[in-house]
Design goal:
With 205 residues, the protein is of the alpha+beta class. The protein folds into 2 domains: 31 residues; 153 residues, Cytochrome Bc1 Complex, Chain A, domain 1 (2-Layer Sandwich). It has 6 helices and 5 strands, in the order αβββααββααα. The strands form 2 sheets. A 3-stranded antiparallel β-sheet has the order 3-5-4. It has a two-stranded antiparallel ribbon with strand order 1-2. The longest helix is centred in the N-terminal third of the chain and has 21 residues.
Length: 205
Protein backbone atom coordinates (compact mmCIF):
# COMPACT_ATOMS: atom_id res chain seq x y z
CA UNK A 1 0.00 0.00 0.00
CA UNK A 2 1.32 3.44 -0.99
CA UNK A 3 1.83 6.17 1.67
CA UNK A 4 -0.86 8.48 0.29
CA UNK A 5 -3.34 5.58 0.29
CA UNK A 6 -2.58 4.91 3.98
CA UNK A 7 -3.07 8.59 4.79
CA UNK A 8 -6.39 8.58 2.91
CA UNK A 9 -7.65 5.56 4.80
CA UNK A 10 -6.64 7.14 8.12
CA UNK A 11 -8.54 10.31 7.19
CA UNK A 12 -11.66 8.33 6.32
CA UNK A 13 -11.46 6.40 9.58
CA UNK A 14 -11.05 9.67 11.49
CA UNK A 15 -14.17 11.14 9.82
CA UNK A 16 -16.15 8.02 10.61
CA UNK A 17 -15.08 8.23 14.26
CA UNK A 18 -16.04 11.92 14.33
CA UNK A 19 -19.47 11.13 12.89
CA UNK A 20 -19.96 8.29 15.36
CA UNK A 21 -19.13 10.64 18.23
CA UNK A 22 -21.63 13.17 16.86
CA UNK A 23 -24.26 10.45 16.72
CA UNK A 24 -23.67 9.84 20.41
CA UNK A 25 -24.40 13.49 21.23
CA UNK A 26 -20.79 14.64 21.76
CA UNK A 27 -20.06 18.08 20.32
CA UNK A 28 -16.40 17.98 19.24
CA UNK A 29 -16.44 21.62 18.16
CA UNK A 30 -16.41 22.84 21.79
CA UNK A 31 -13.87 22.10 24.48
CA UNK A 32 -15.19 19.99 27.36
CA UNK A 33 -16.37 21.85 30.45
CA UNK A 34 -14.31 21.49 33.57
CA UNK A 35 -15.92 19.69 36.45
CA UNK A 36 -15.68 20.79 40.06
CA UNK A 37 -12.18 20.61 41.56
CA UNK A 38 -11.54 17.41 43.49
CA UNK A 39 -11.58 17.61 47.25
CA UNK A 40 -8.15 17.18 48.78
CA UNK A 41 -8.00 15.63 52.22
CA UNK A 42 -4.56 16.14 53.74
CA UNK A 43 -3.43 14.31 56.87
CA UNK A 44 -2.99 16.46 59.97
CA UNK A 45 0.44 17.79 60.95
CA UNK A 46 1.39 16.77 64.48
CA UNK A 47 3.91 19.10 66.15
CA UNK A 48 6.11 18.16 69.09
CA UNK A 49 8.95 19.87 70.92
CA UNK A 50 11.89 17.66 71.92
CA UNK A 51 13.74 18.25 75.22
CA UNK A 52 16.73 19.64 73.32
CA UNK A 53 14.52 22.30 71.70
CA UNK A 54 14.26 20.62 68.30
CA UNK A 55 10.86 21.12 66.67
CA UNK A 56 9.40 17.86 65.35
CA UNK A 57 6.64 17.83 62.72
CA UNK A 58 4.99 14.51 61.88
CA UNK A 59 2.66 13.58 59.03
CA UNK A 60 1.32 10.03 59.06
CA UNK A 61 0.26 8.06 56.00
CA UNK A 62 0.09 4.28 56.26
CA UNK A 63 -0.59 3.23 52.67
CA UNK A 64 3.03 2.12 52.09
CA UNK A 65 5.63 0.67 54.49
CA UNK A 66 7.95 3.64 53.99
CA UNK A 67 9.21 6.49 56.16
CA UNK A 68 10.76 9.82 55.22
CA UNK A 69 12.79 12.09 57.49
CA UNK A 70 14.08 15.59 56.77
CA UNK A 71 16.42 17.40 59.14
CA UNK A 72 16.20 21.11 58.36
CA UNK A 73 18.87 23.55 59.55
CA UNK A 74 18.11 27.25 59.12
CA UNK A 75 21.43 28.18 57.58
CA UNK A 76 22.47 28.06 53.95
CA UNK A 77 24.31 29.98 51.28
CA UNK A 78 23.33 33.38 52.71
CA UNK A 79 25.73 32.64 55.57
CA UNK A 80 28.62 32.47 53.06
CA UNK A 81 29.80 36.03 53.46
CA UNK A 82 32.56 37.53 51.33
CA UNK A 83 34.78 35.04 49.55
CA UNK A 84 33.12 31.92 50.98
CA UNK A 85 30.66 31.34 48.14
CA UNK A 86 29.86 27.65 47.78
CA UNK A 87 30.94 26.66 51.32
CA UNK A 88 27.42 25.64 52.44
CA UNK A 89 26.92 23.60 49.29
CA UNK A 90 30.28 21.87 49.66
CA UNK A 91 29.70 21.25 53.38
CA UNK A 92 26.38 19.55 52.66
CA UNK A 93 28.02 17.39 50.01
CA UNK A 94 30.72 16.35 52.50
CA UNK A 95 28.29 15.02 55.13
CA UNK A 96 28.08 11.58 53.52
CA UNK A 97 31.82 11.36 52.95
CA UNK A 98 32.70 10.01 56.39
CA UNK A 99 31.92 10.17 60.10
CA UNK A 100 33.98 9.51 63.22
CA UNK A 101 32.97 5.83 63.04
CA UNK A 102 32.34 5.17 59.33
CA UNK A 103 34.31 5.86 56.17
CA UNK A 104 32.73 7.09 52.95
CA UNK A 105 32.65 3.65 51.30
CA UNK A 106 31.21 2.07 54.44
CA UNK A 107 28.36 4.58 54.44
CA UNK A 108 27.71 3.94 50.74
CA UNK A 109 27.77 0.14 51.22
CA UNK A 110 25.41 0.29 54.20
CA UNK A 111 23.02 2.60 52.38
CA UNK A 112 22.93 0.21 49.42
CA UNK A 113 22.56 -2.87 51.64
CA UNK A 114 19.64 -1.38 53.57
CA UNK A 115 17.92 -0.15 50.40
CA UNK A 116 17.61 3.40 51.70
CA UNK A 117 18.30 6.85 50.31
CA UNK A 118 20.40 9.23 52.39
CA UNK A 119 21.06 12.63 50.83
CA UNK A 120 22.11 16.13 51.83
CA UNK A 121 21.72 19.51 50.17
CA UNK A 122 21.92 23.23 50.79
CA UNK A 123 19.86 26.13 49.44
CA UNK A 124 20.00 29.87 50.05
CA UNK A 125 18.30 29.88 53.45
CA UNK A 126 18.61 26.32 54.75
CA UNK A 127 20.47 23.03 54.63
CA UNK A 128 18.80 19.62 54.74
CA UNK A 129 19.65 16.00 55.42
CA UNK A 130 17.03 13.60 54.06
CA UNK A 131 16.32 9.92 54.64
CA UNK A 132 13.96 7.63 52.72
CA UNK A 133 13.70 4.12 54.14
CA UNK A 134 11.47 1.03 54.33
CA UNK A 135 9.97 0.77 57.80
CA UNK A 136 11.51 -2.71 58.11
CA UNK A 137 14.95 -1.03 58.17
CA UNK A 138 13.90 1.93 60.29
CA UNK A 139 16.22 1.43 63.29
CA UNK A 140 19.34 0.79 61.20
CA UNK A 141 18.52 3.62 58.79
CA UNK A 142 17.98 6.14 61.60
CA UNK A 143 21.30 5.11 63.17
CA UNK A 144 23.11 6.04 59.91
CA UNK A 145 21.03 9.20 59.58
CA UNK A 146 21.97 10.34 63.09
CA UNK A 147 25.62 9.45 62.62
CA UNK A 148 25.91 11.52 59.44
CA UNK A 149 24.06 14.43 61.04
CA UNK A 150 25.92 14.51 64.36
CA UNK A 151 29.40 13.09 63.69
CA UNK A 152 30.71 14.17 60.27
CA UNK A 153 34.52 13.98 60.15
CA UNK A 154 35.17 15.82 56.85
CA UNK A 155 38.16 13.58 55.93
CA UNK A 156 40.89 15.38 54.00
CA UNK A 157 41.19 12.78 51.24
CA UNK A 158 37.46 12.89 50.48
CA UNK A 159 37.53 16.69 50.58
CA UNK A 160 40.35 16.79 48.03
CA UNK A 161 38.46 14.37 45.77
CA UNK A 162 35.23 16.33 46.03
CA UNK A 163 37.06 19.62 45.48
CA UNK A 164 38.62 18.32 42.23
CA UNK A 165 35.21 17.08 41.09
CA UNK A 166 33.66 20.45 41.87
CA UNK A 167 36.39 22.32 39.95
CA UNK A 168 35.81 20.06 36.96
CA UNK A 169 32.07 20.72 37.16
CA UNK A 170 32.64 24.48 37.27
CA UNK A 171 34.86 24.21 34.20
CA UNK A 172 32.19 22.25 32.32
CA UNK A 173 29.52 24.81 33.17
CA UNK A 174 31.47 27.45 31.23
CA UNK A 175 30.40 25.74 27.99
CA UNK A 176 26.68 25.65 28.88
CA UNK A 177 24.64 28.70 27.92
CA UNK A 178 21.85 28.26 30.50
CA UNK A 179 24.43 27.72 33.26
CA UNK A 180 26.27 30.92 32.28
CA UNK A 181 22.96 32.83 32.34
CA UNK A 182 22.10 31.39 35.76
CA UNK A 183 25.37 32.77 37.11
CA UNK A 184 25.20 36.15 35.36
CA UNK A 185 21.57 37.01 36.11
CA UNK A 186 21.68 37.01 39.95
CA UNK A 187 25.05 38.78 39.87
CA UNK A 188 23.46 41.59 37.84
CA UNK A 189 20.32 41.76 39.99
CA UNK A 190 21.91 41.52 43.46
CA UNK A 191 25.54 42.43 42.84
CA UNK A 192 28.66 40.37 43.46
CA UNK A 193 28.91 41.44 47.11
CA UNK A 194 25.49 40.01 48.05
CA UNK A 195 25.16 36.26 48.85
CA UNK A 196 22.28 35.99 46.36
CA UNK A 197 24.61 37.28 43.66
CA UNK A 198 26.89 34.24 43.80
CA UNK A 199 26.10 30.73 42.54
CA UNK A 200 25.25 28.09 45.13
CA UNK A 201 28.01 25.90 43.75
CA UNK A 202 30.60 28.63 44.33
CA UNK A 203 33.53 29.62 42.13
CA UNK A 204 36.98 28.26 41.35
CA UNK A 205 38.43 30.68 43.88
Amino acid sequence: MKPFQSAGIATVLGLLAFQAAGAQGIDRTKPPELGPPPRVSLPPIITRQLPNGLKLMIVEQHELPLADFVLLVGSGATANAGSKAGVANLTAAMLREGTTSRKSLEIADQVACLGINLSSSSSWESSTLSLHTPTAQLDSALARFADVALHPSFPANEFDRLKKTRLTELLQLRDQGPAIANVAFPAIVYGNSHPYGAALIGTET
